[in-house]
Design brief:
This protein is of the alpha/beta class and about 425 residues long. It has helices at about 35-40, 65-75, 90-100, 120-135, 135-145, 150-155, 155-170, 170-185, 210-220, 235-240, 240-255, 305-315, 320-325, 335-345, 355-370, 370-385, 390-400, 405-425; strands at about 10, 20, 45-50, 85-90, 105-110, 200-205, 225-230. A seven-stranded mixed β-sheet has the order 1-3-2-4-5-6-7, with helices on both faces.
Amino acid sequence: MSEKTLQHRIDGPDDAPVLVLGASLGTTWHMWDRQIPELTRHWRVIRFDLPGHGGSPAHAASSIAELADRLVATLDLLGVERFGYTGCNIGGAIGLQLALTRPHRVTSLALVSSSSRYGTADAWRQRGVVIRTNGLDPIARTSPEHWFTAGFAGAQPAIVEWAVQMVRTTDPGCYIAACEALASYDVRSSLSRVGVPTLVVVGSEDQVTPTSDARSLVAGIPDASLALVPGTSHLAPVEQPSAVTELLIRHFTTAWHDKPGPAGQPALGAAAPKAQIAPPPPPAAPPAAIESGLTKQEPVRGGTYEAGIKVRREVLGDAHVDRAEAAADDFTGDFQDFITRYAWGETWTRPGLDRRTRSIITLTALVARGHQEELALHTRAALRNGLTPTEIKEVLMHTAVYCGVPAANSAFAVAQRVIKEETTPEG
């Protein structure tokens, strides 16, 4: 299997329209098994596994865009030009990405247990730290309580065990890469550009992608409808297979648009926006920079600042950067702008060293100078950048020789506290 394609399975008649099914994070294409008998009566169904999931090769992809590119490359090899798409969780994110970037390929869309923004970037990167330290077992053990209602889990122990084993057998590096992909995924401002009929399906008890996320999708996508599955949690296709199958058949049977448009281009066939749902207001235009000579001059924030704030958020976390920006005033604002542009936009973005190496250098310098508050901050950053607690320990052991035992002793106390906080699984 090429690194540029995805492992896949095909069911159904060769001459039928194609329907692609994308699975949730931590699952395999088998989460759709109960839908296949009915769907293949109407469509040629193509299911795919995420990298490192099921038996797929562990060629990690770090963005939703990259996963969408690999799916398109897979469909190109199969000679598939137009297709309907259904995705659950991260599979839904891939579907939205396709609808936004390849609108000529997608005929209609169904988003199951999906969102335009999955949680927070900090939470996804924190999950990566926990997995890097403890493996996938803590995630596997807690997955059923997030995926299924308590009643279903109690009545179906075999399915619960199947779910746990799916997560346990996933490649940790690929799972972490998927977490990074979801951390940077946000299409809230682009939903109005989705130009195909879209069905949004959500379980009434889903706490992972709650009904509020589903309603936001429906409000933002011009031609979207909402289907609420009662008494169901996140993996609705597994917990309520018949209900989800019926919804998909009804949607794709009535909303499949594949008619030729002007100049030989396929028409997207989107209906007019629903009257009962007001489209989201357009984003406000950024305020113009205040010209010099006025009372207060705002910095002109160009490419260096934008690159810096992106890296700063990825390394230090949104919560820290939000606090720093909220606390900035006339006295400290210029300094915050300075470190964002020069430390993060010009130094941390240089191609000569990777982020792991830069974290090692930064930890060493902070130990040498005794900057313990910054050391705590950058110990968290080092974990986010891929260092394990064992590697951080070795860095601090090395500093004991070159920076002094008292400095290293204080550093161990700081790092021990932070590592315990960051790597202890929830629950």
